[in-house]
Amino acid sequence: MKLKRKNRRSDMKVITKEGKILKFFRESRKLSMRQAARVIGVSEASVNHSENGRKDLTPSLILKFLNGYGHSLEEFVAFVHGNIELPENTLSECIGILKRLEPTKLKTVKTILQSF
User: For 9, which DSSP code?
Assistant: First the structure.
């Protein structure tokens, strides 16, 4: 007799903007998932599943993350609504622009970037 496996939310991966923002906040504090779990008071799996779309994010869970990371709800909402852009989006947009540049213009951009 074959047992039927129970469907679990963690079997399905749906990466959300909210999860990406929480990951960005954690990484901006230079916290590992283990360290973040200790600070927030949840399991390491909960941090992992929240960031990687394997857990539904409730308002109370989001607030736990924000409090642990030292970010405000207003800042989180600004990221969610696109008022503040995640750096990863900026990077991918810049890479797209660089790929379309002519070689002479690309050399100029390289010179500018090396000055930073």
Answer: G
| Alpha carbon distance 95, 106 (integer Å) | 11
Distance CA 40, CA 29 (A): 13
Residue 82, pLDDT > 90, answer no
Instruction: Kindly state which CATH superfamily the domain 10-84 is placed in.
Output: lambda repressor-like DNA-binding domains (1.10.260.40)
Give dist(CA 16, CA 115) in Å, integer.
36
Q: Which two tokens stand for residue 85?
A: 């852009």
Q: Is the pTM of this model over 0.70?
A: no
pLDDT tens-place string over residues 87-116 = 776 777 788 888 899 999 989 999 998 988
For CA atoms 49, 51, 55, 57, the dihedral sign is positive
Name the DSSP class of 10.
G
